[in-house]
Amino acid sequence: MHLVKSIATALLLAGCSLASAVPKPAPEAQFGKEHQHPFHKPAPKVFIISMFAPEAEAWWNIPEFDLLAHNITLPGTSPVYPDVYCTADYSICQMITGESEINAAVTVSSVAFSPLFDLTHTYFMIAGIAGVNPEVATIGGVAFARYAVQVALQYEIALRDLGPNYTSPYIPLGAYAPDQYPGSIYGTEVFEVNAELRSLAASFARTAQLADSDTAKSYRAKYATDSGIYTAGTQAPSVVECDVATSDVYFSGTLLDDVFANTVKVLTNGTGVYCTTAQEDNATLEALLRAASHRLVDFSRIIVMRTASDFDRPYPGQSAIDNLLYADQGGFEPAVQNIYNAGIKVVEGILDGWDKTFAAGVKPSNYIGDEFGTLGGTPDFGPGRTIAREEANALKKRGVAKRGRRL
Predict the structure, then answer these.
(1) 390 CB-near residues (< 8 Å, 6+ apart)
(2) Which has the closest alpha carbon to 341: 215, 213, 206, 220?
(3) Residue 192 in domain
(4) Quick one: signal sequence residues (predicted)?
(5) Could you list the mean pLDDT of each consecutive 10-residue stretch along the chain, which spans 407 residues?
(6) Half-sphere exposure of 151 (CA within 13 A, CB side)
């Protein structure tokens, strides 16, 4: 990891410190003078959210800007990735959450609630790799989501233990069949972000030249079928607008993929299209939503971008185990490269259009937020704000605790 020297300044807040690395002496005096009395918080225009080292490093040592001009160590961030990185003028910053929902939730909360930054006008861009559904897109491709769905937040019964009336091992919490809406709602099941901003970001990304590999070209050709169900998966990488499933379980196989595609459809009232699968997005969005409820961030300024590193299911005749554990799909390197190739176009689009469009914000035409309507408005998914809030306590009301279940 290429670290750059940060400077000790009067900016140090309680529990916050600037870390040091490779020398960069020039900003020291300027930063100290500029931010003494009164204290002016850095207010990034774009905050890139990476999940682990390869995603983060895609942004380092690039010609457009130097993200490593400042390292800011924050309490509550990952012990593996404790630093927030920023350009010299703090217009662009990056955090690395660590993989999985818990790491993402804690890291993003720590940054969003930190007193060091003013994030009220910041655009957050989740920029990571993901599995991909070959019915919708392909490895190496770039997907921008409107919905993030926590697909594994369900009852699970082992396939061998299922009765004859069940075809899915997953049943929504508080429900009795796979196609029913959850009867017990936690509030993190679905998040909806700004569809207008999503389309703008996708339009910027479509100007990028996307990376590919010979191995990926050969592998995706295996998804050609007479029915054409995987036609999208056989195509060259492109930019698409479709939705992301969140699960700490790294799943593979046609059965589970179809189950979770149905979960996305059910939980978004038929609007969402399952396209990519990742581990962190609902956790990240819940942390940002809680910060938004305190007016620390603007939930309408969130972009969810995932690049496809691997197919979520085998090609015809291949086993799910081979697809998951052994096959060289050739998608990882292009996916990581396309985080930068597509993402830099989004960042530049926001910065170049700041005065004209982005400083004031991109007004959403759709509902944004969670199932509870935490930020106001009327959710266009779920049973409605009032019922959702009532169902959040449904297990207790139904007396499940008397049967020894966890509340």
Answers:
(1) none
(2) 206
(3) yes
(4) 1-21
(5) 34 36 32 42 97 98 97 95 97 97 98 97 98 97 98 90 85 89 92 98 98 98 96 97 95 90 94 96 98 98 98 95 94 98 98 97 96 94 73 52 37
(6) 32
Q: How many domains does the chain have?
A: 1
Using CA atoms of 326, 330, 331, 334 in order, give the dihedral in degrees to the nearest 10: 150
**Domain at 235, CATH number:** 3.40.50.1580
Question: Residue 160 carries which DSSP code?
Answer: G
In sequence order, what are the residues at sequence separation of 6 or more whose Cβ sits closer than 8 angstroms to the Cβ of residue 311? Answer: 131, 132, 133, 134, 139, 219, 220, 223, 233, 323, 329, 331
Domain of 376 in residue numbering reads as 46-392
Under a CB-based contact definition with an 8 Å cutoff, are residues 394 and 174 in contact? yes
**Does 170 reside within a domain?**
yes
pTM to 2 decimal places:
0.86
Q: Are 93 and 16 in contact (CB under 8 A)?
A: no
| DSSP-assigned beta bridge partners for residue 125 | 48, 303
Residue positions counted in the chain: 407
Query: And the tokens for 190?
Result: 């679905």
Asked if 219 and 226 count as a contact pair (C-beta separation under 8 A), the reply is no
